[in-house]
């Protein structure tokens, strides 16, 4: 795996103006997307996944959005500083997005073939006929059959799964360098979800695209991601390789997400769920916003937010439990089981 960065988000801070106080939606978020990799961003609803990625394509509502700090570096330029015109060239052509509900991105009164073709005409300057041929090729690539007929149909004539395939065809037609998929499979049933994820994985490799995959469902992450970033209350609270986050998680919030995942091997384990609900981002209390829900919280959690502690060169977690002065605690059974898997995985690697 190459580890050359294609996108670097550094110390991003975003607030929204409201009729009351501002909502501090993104509170100092940094992450890197490397060329060719898939980065999954996970977290509960409202944690800031969509806002931080919409900032990349500058799709946040201008009137109410205040970007109060940070930079978004793509190929050496700060996307927060370039002109609207330059951004229009990058959006769609170099950085494309797929959303949970394709109907919000597809034009309901234009045939799907025409929509894909139009994007190729605008971004790649293809002539109409050539663009339509390429559009049909893309539709076939994403597994749509009878493309001569289907390319003449409108979005409402497609099922949910097929519509998502159309969105993928539209997003990848211009061969973007980065694809941001925001909950692309959430509205689909489990079998179709698996098919769409497999499709995105194979096309991403074929097109040499780097992928940011946003989801609240850790279950789908294992099948797509190289690295995982876990968000809570507008911050990344843990990030690492998929094995590190799945089998050696350090943050009690990640423990909660993992332990509440349905699993076949959990019959005897004590179920650990995250009590309470996410904080009000308008009025955050002093200390770690996760503290009131954290059964492993220390006194300091109610006073000061933890920094990201380094676990390995590739793994970081923002929990005071990693401070050398913290008491040693016993993680929940399910997490201990994962630690054992992690240690046996590592032993296998060492013995190779
Ligand atoms: N236009 C807006 N005005 C005010 N607050 C906003 C606006 N857009 C987003 N927010 C707030 O920003 C925070 C982060 O929202 P975001 O949509 O990024 O969360 P998310 O993790 O993607 O959740 P979901 O999975 O529900 O989409 C939330 O508290 C949300 O209410």
Entry keywords:
eight-stranded mixed β-sheet; binds adenosine-5'-triphosphate; 34% helix; globular; Oligopep_ABC_C; 352 residues; four-stranded antiparallel β-sheet; 12 strands; alpha/beta
Structural overview:
It is built from eleven helices and twelve strands. It has helices at about 50-55, 85-90, 110-125, 130-140, 145-150, 160-175, 190-205, 220-225, 240-245, 250-260, 335-350; strands at about 5-15, 25-35, 40, 65-75, 75-80, 95-100, 180, 210-215, 225-230, 235-240, 310, 315. A hairpin with a 2-residue loop joins strand 9 and strand 10 (about 235-240). The longest helix is centred in the last third of the chain and has 19 residues, at about 335-350. It is globular and about 70 Å long. The two termini are about 20 Å apart. Adenosine-5'-triphosphate binds near residues 45, 47, 49, 50 and 51. Adenosine-5'-triphosphate binds next to strand 2 and helix 1.
What is the chain-wise order of helices and strands? EEEHEEHEHHHHEHEHEEHHEEH
What small molecules does this complex bind?
A: adenosine-5'-triphosphate
Shape: globular
Question: Strand-residue fraction?
Answer: 15-25%
Family: Belongs to the ABC transporter superfamily.
Subcellular location: Cell membrane
Keywords: ATP-binding, Cell membrane, Membrane, Nucleotide-binding, Transport
GO molecular function, one term: ATP binding
Q: Outline of this structure?
A:
By secondary structure, this protein is an alpha/beta fold.
